[in-house]
Amino acid sequence: MVRSLAQWTKTLSFPARISPHKSKEAAAVSPLITPTPSNQSLSVQSSDTMMNSNCASLTEVSHIYASEDPDSEKAIMSSVVYCIHHKDGCKWSDELRKLKGHLNTCKHDALPCTSKCGAQIPRVLMEDHLKYTCPQRRTRCEFCAKEFSGHGLESHAGHCGAEPLYCENKCGVKMPRRLLSQHKAGDCAKRLLPCRCCGKEFVADTLAAHHVKCGRMPVPCPNRCDATALAREELDAHLKDACAVSVHGCSFKDAGCRFKGARPAMERHLADAGQQHLQMMCGLVAKQQQQIASLKGALARLSLNCSGTLIWKVSDFGAKIAEAKGKEGMELVSPPFYTSQYGYRLQASLFPNGNGAGEDSHLSVYIKILPGEYDALLRWPFAHSVSFTLFDQCGTPEKACNIVESFIPDPTWKNFQRPSKEPDSLGFGFPKFVSHDTLRRRHFLRDDVLFIRVKVDPSKIVAV
Ligand SMILES: [Zn+2]
Ligand SMILES: [Zn+2]
Ligand SMILES: [Zn+2]
Ligand SMILES: [Zn+2]
Ligand SMILES: [Zn+2]
Ligand SMILES: [Zn+2]
Ligand SMILES: [Zn+2]
After folding, report:
1. Distance (Å) from CA 171 to ligand 3 centroid
2. Ligand 7 midpoint to CA 285 (Å)
């Protein structure tokens, strides 16, 4: 027993403290590994721990050990020690006899690599190191199966020509590294290729679809003319303007010319048919004028006032009254309006400088009955009351003081009979509607504008 202990302690010394306490927990000895394996016995090392008064002297231990007393040996082997790598952080502590067993697994118990790579490897990791990480290990590349040292394999990794890799263009192909660049340049479906016509780059498998619509792709003229190297995007312009074979209608076809021909014939036709084309254009203009007139009529009907009430705005009144003073009988007439959609057609008239009894002193207003679309269906004589209102344009409508005059037509008057197709100028109304003096008061005239409302009593409009 003593000998075997002496053998394994060859590499050990016990320089650290031994607790004077006898209990296992307290009596911990902290042996240190010595770098002198030739040391045949436990040696005392001068360390700080030895200065600790709580430590038993190792000399004592040596002494006990040297005495080869079996009891003492037992006592020593039962003493509780820390792992020799306690200072390196190993927390192990137990009886001395178990230390050897612990060192087999202590991860702080480093040994030089047995393959002599020079690394210090914890005992428990040695196997892994020799197998997987030692630069001196012999190993094979899993792809090319060549044998390498561990160090050699590290340099080989990432460069092995046999390692299968996915194509970087994401075409889905996986192949050995050494073939990949050839694949990417040659037959990868996702490589970029320039269109031979327009030069733009396309992914290889979309190039055929691009060629079908590439504007620069040469196409033959569908008329089989002599033009060569026509790009697809130029074809329309060629057919329209340049193709010597394509047939076009004469540019005067809207005016009625029916000539059709290819470019040279068309040029001759345009030179020869000038007179003919002019006549066609005149006919077209006349036709369009008719259309315009009928559209105007339709527009007038649409914008016709059928409300029975006309608000007549008379602008530039100052100029008009001045003109009227120098021109006897000057009359202004309103736009015609209807008393209802199918009613009487009426028109107001205004003498700025007066008429009849109001001449030179008053504004005279009249209503005239014009021939209308529905006269045949209406009741005659015209019998609805009519009122004229001159608006006071003061700012507050509540304070406005309008001038209103109205009348009920006298059925015996000629003015209210059904008008003929050529109506006379006769109207009915008020020669002294408002005097020029009154006109200047209040706000009947504002910004040189006056407003007159002519209203036909709607309750009496139904005539048929
Ligand atoms: Zn340990
Ligand atoms: Zn190694
Ligand atoms: Zn390899
Ligand atoms: Zn690819
Ligand atoms: Zn192209
Ligand atoms: Zn052509
Ligand atoms: Zn023509």
Report:
1. 24
2. 17
Q: Could you tell me the distance, in angstroms and rounded to a whole number, from the CA of residue 464 to the centre of ligand 5?
A: 78
How close is the Cα of 199 to the center of ligand 5, in Å? 6
Are residues 252 and 281 in contact, defined by beta-carbon separation less than 8 angstroms? yes
Evaluate the CA torsion angle 410, 414, 417, 423 in order and state its sign.
negative
Q: 161 alpha carbon to ligand 3 midpoint, in Å?
A: 6
User: Cα–Cα distance between 213 and 232 in angstroms, integer?
Assistant: 8
Residues 358-406: tens digit of each pLDDT: 999 999 999 998 998 888 888 888 888 899 999 999 888 888 889 999 8
CA 205 to ligand 5 centroid distance, Å: 14
Separation between Cα atoms, residue 82 and residue 93, nearest integer Å:
4
Grade residue 271 by pLDDT with cuts at 50, 70 and 90. Answer: very high
Q: Which residues make beta-bridge pairs with 174?
A: 166
Among 222, 195, 198, smallest CA distance to 206 is for 195
